[in-house]
Amino acid sequence: MPGQDLDVGAWLRRLGLERYAQAFRDAEITPEALPELTDADLRELGLPLGPRKVVLKAIRALAGPSTTMASVAGAAQAARLFRLATGA
Question: What one-character DSSP code corresponds to residue 18?
């Protein structure tokens, strides 16, 4: 997950989206808030579709592979439990 040391403005610059840094500052978007942002939130901040997709993808990348692997493992476990419970 994004840490306290992440500079949101610098992060947007690395994504080539520095023109939206002021909107993020005005909305007081902190590193801790990034994982909670939705497509609708980004639309409200004034980002068009392309930049919204870039930001959402970059937020997922900040979470790292361990989060993705945990989600996959959790889904696999849920499927196993369902099969056990239903006899499928």
Answer: G
pLDDT tens profile 9-25: 999 999 999 999 999 99
0.85 surpassed by pTM: no
* Residue whose pair of structure tokens reads 């849920």 in the numeric block: 78
Cα 20 to Cα 75: distance, rounded to the nearest angstrom? 35
Burial environment of residue 52 by CB neighbours within 10 A (0 to 12, 13 to 18, 19 or more):
buried
**87 CB contacts (<8 Å, ≥6 apart)?**
none
Angle at the Cα of 44 from the Cα atoms of 35 and 58, rounded to 5 degrees? 35
User: What would the two tokens of residue 44 be?
Assistant: 């409200």
- Pairwise CA distance, residues 56 & 62, whole Å: 10
